[in-house]
Amino acid sequence: MGFHTFDPESADKLEDDSRYRYLSREELVAALALGSDRDAAVADLGSGTGFYTDDVAAFAGEVRAVDVQDEMHELYREKGVPENVALVTADVGDLPFADGELDAAFSTMTFHEFAGDGHGDGGSGAETEVARVLADGGRFVVADWSASGEGESGPPVDERYDRDEAVELLEDAGFEVVRADERPETFFVVAQA
Ligand SMILES: C[S@@+](CC[C@H](N)C(=O)[O-])C[C@H]1O[C@@H](n2cnc3c(N)ncnc32)[C@H](O)[C@@H]1O
What we know:
- This protein is an alpha/beta fold and about 190 residues long.
- It has a single domain, classed as Vaccinia Virus protein VP39 (Rossmann fold, 3-Layer(aba) Sandwich).
- It is about 25% helix and about 25% strand.
- It has a seven-stranded mixed sheet with strand order 3-2-1-4-5-7-6, sandwiched between helices.
- The relative contact order is 0.16.
- Residues about 120-125 have low confidence and may be disordered.
- The structure holds S-adenosylmethionine (SAM).
- S-adenosylmethionine binds near residues 14, 48 and 109.
């Protein structure tokens, strides 16, 4: 569609607690179903400045913060990276992880940049790559701006998927979708590998 990925110049918008209006820490952590031992290996796909990475890290053994732009990792370093978070510079479509290595993965407000036919710079079909690196039964939790929204915030509406499109893409990649909500402005999908 000929547009570029998130501009690091706008990164301060990501460090804003009003974002919890669209996705709370509690619903994200609950949907990941990490268990009480706090030993799960999790990936945040398109981690940006680590706004949600920090939230999940408190409930996981380790989090791989994956972002294709080094500038975003640099901003995360300036903020401070928790000890159990590793910064990984990679495209979601080509993850440097072994088959089944992760217990869970999530992506917040970034699915439209890497999934499907390459809406963004991530190429095509990155959700298949996510399925590869998840253990059997591992969850992939996706929250993103929805094409059914009005565009009050986030990317232009025509650059987004809606819930049903996201479900179709995930099912085509072999995921079983266990929850799929269309909400004002965002969708929320929980899929299982
Ligand atoms: C809109 S920001 C969201 C950041 C973070 N998930 C959050 O909610 O605060 C999107 C981030 O995803 C990264 N990104 C976009 N496409 C990517 C891809 N194909 N692989 C890895 N990272 C990607 C961008 O560099 C940017 O940091």
